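Box 4.2: Ligand-aware structure prediction
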Amino acid sequence: MAILKNINLINFRNFNNLNLSFDKKLNIFFGKNGCGKTNILEAISLIAKGRGIRNSSIFNLIKKNKDNFLIKNNLEIKYNNFNVEVSSEKKNDKFKKIIKINDDLSKDSLDFLYESLSYITFLPEMERLFQTSPSQRRNFLDRLIFSSRNNYNRLINRYKKILIERIKILQGNIIDYDWLDNVEKEICNLGMEIYKERLAQVGFLNSNFITLKSDHKFQFNVELKIKDDFYYNQFSFDEYLLNLKKSRIFDKKYGGTKIGPHKSDLIAIINDDFEASLLSTGQQKTLILMILLSQCNLLVNEKSINPILLFDEIGSHLDSNNRQLLLDMINKFKIQFFLTGTDKNLFSFVSTNAEFYNITNI
Ligand SMILES: Nc1ncnc2c1ncn2[C@@H]1O[C@H](COP(=O)(O)OP(=O)(O)O)[C@@H](O)[C@H]1O
Ligand SMILES: [Mg+2]
């Protein structure tokens, strides 16, 4: 599907004017800390919907003391070439991201672009995913769902908005109970859908770990689970609504909503025995790579989506297990990779032809 052929960064982060042409398979950026490797991955991730891998404000993307940034690139989608431009634009003191495909801003063109692009990312902080907060793990899971369903973020955003609306009603002076009932019904509808999507994603990954085992020597068995104090298999809409009603007084006082998918956690059980937080750092990286390998398998083999892989700082802490997982991913799927690391030597184990870019000397 989509292959990124080149990129031109103008006044983007630390770059004035950077031009790079890419290999359709494997691209490796290396160089000293702070030279701009993550910035390049970020620029690539901005070609899609949303705020990119760093979730940064538009303003911070613009090179200091410049007015706007521009990212020009050439994408090959189903053997056709498209010129895509991503830029910032200031309107009423606010910065907006603008995307044009072949100079066209229409919704149809953008929808076509969004449907054609999908990213799978590895960020160094994911090595500690199972030691950080549940919200990070929910985001991680939601990004996986988003990689195969590009309108999923709309569902999440609407859900977040309507939770805020309910609290505003509860904390207002006069409560309109009809309105509140309707808002709670919508919360339950959206919430049920989010639960369903997340369970389907987790279910897929679990069954895929088992299938992949025949080709890969995984170091351990993994079972992912959604941990949630309220939700269980037969949880019904009516039960959800009733619980939400019951928690009105509490929620009003606390200023948040006690139940729902925004309270769930993603946990990983290793060898039917213990939670992933007990794994070593290197093993936690293995776990993340197993999940990403499995996600590639879902996208490529079941959904006919060819994602672009953005793996930041993947070069460090790669023991033989993790190297093997990365090599399996590179060799098994016909997809485009962008990897970063501080040193070229970290990637000497990669035997496939790779294009190396020394970012320090740019
Ligand atoms: N808006 C900006 N304008 C100019 N420089 C920036 C801007 N944002 C970030 N930088 C610079 O980019 C560098 C960080 O780049 P980064 O891609 O994170 O490096 P690394 O190669 O370690 O991944 C820092 O030196 C930082 O000062
Ligand atoms: Mg970096």
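In the box above, the bound molecule is magnesium ion. The chain has a mean pLDDT of 95.
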